[in-house]
Amino acid sequence: MLAVAPAVDFRCGRIGGRAEDKMPITNAQSGTNVNEIADGIYRISTPIDAIPGGFTFNQYLIADDDPLLFHMGGRQLFPLVREAVASVIPLTRLRYVALSHFEADECGSLNEWLAAAPNAAALCGRIAAMTSVRDFADRPPREMADGETLSLGAHEVRWLDMPHMPHGWECGYLTERRTRTLLCGDLFTQPGSKPAPLTEADILGPSEALRSHLDYFSHTRNARALLERLAATEPSVLACMHGSAWRGDGGALLRELATILERD
What we know:
By secondary structure, the protein is α/β, with parallel strands linked by helices. The strands form 3 sheets. It has an 8-stranded mixed β-sheet with strand order 3-4-5-6-7-8-9-10. Residues 1-21 have low confidence and may be disordered. It has one domain (8-263): Metallo-beta-lactamase, Chain A. Helix 6 runs antiparallel to helix 7 (250-263). The protein has helices at 78-86, 104-107, 110-116, 126-136, 204-213, 223-231, 250-263; strands at residues 8-9, 14-15, 25-27, 32-38, 41-48, 55-62, 68-70, 96-98, 121-125, 142-144, 149-151, 156-161, 172-176, 181-185, 198-199, 237-240, 245-247.
């Protein structure tokens, strides 16, 4: 398992520091913390008590020449997430604030981010732009076509349309080519207030147990085809929005989820 993130030295443009140079908790009151879960990809996580046993809201920062934040959090979380991002990069360097679908915990603080990061643009799929983001955002978004790639520097992300997977017509995900990280949003949502930043343990079981009580999936008839498309990217890290990020054979786990959904 990866260690907690070392310090980032942007004067030389690379991640540096010793293993003991850690940056876990950025806000002692909230417990917001930052950990590197793949090379140059940081999980920002804030625990809350929204459900019994606790819950987490995660965002993912890709630190590169053109840094990208995947999911922004709601407006009430903005000060905490802003503080966490600023512990890794200056906010003035942030280039993209991305969302998988239009919902408060994904992008409620979008305009706060556009104000705090003057060089940033919202990044989303074309359906999200058409239905919500062009009207909501204070600056025009960077619209991604299905299958389009975007270079951030050493990292390259690709947008994949995923309508109604698990919910929202406009839903889509980003996959990062070099680290084989899938920014998979609400897929594999896990409960708990203090999950490991990155795990190789079972996340499908806890996720399905939660879904049995909070059925937030759309039950699209295209679930198998959509999940197979994600599996074909052969992710080795799943960057989940709620709970731990996961490392392993992501393609196999996505296909296992598809089999479960076919039985619903």
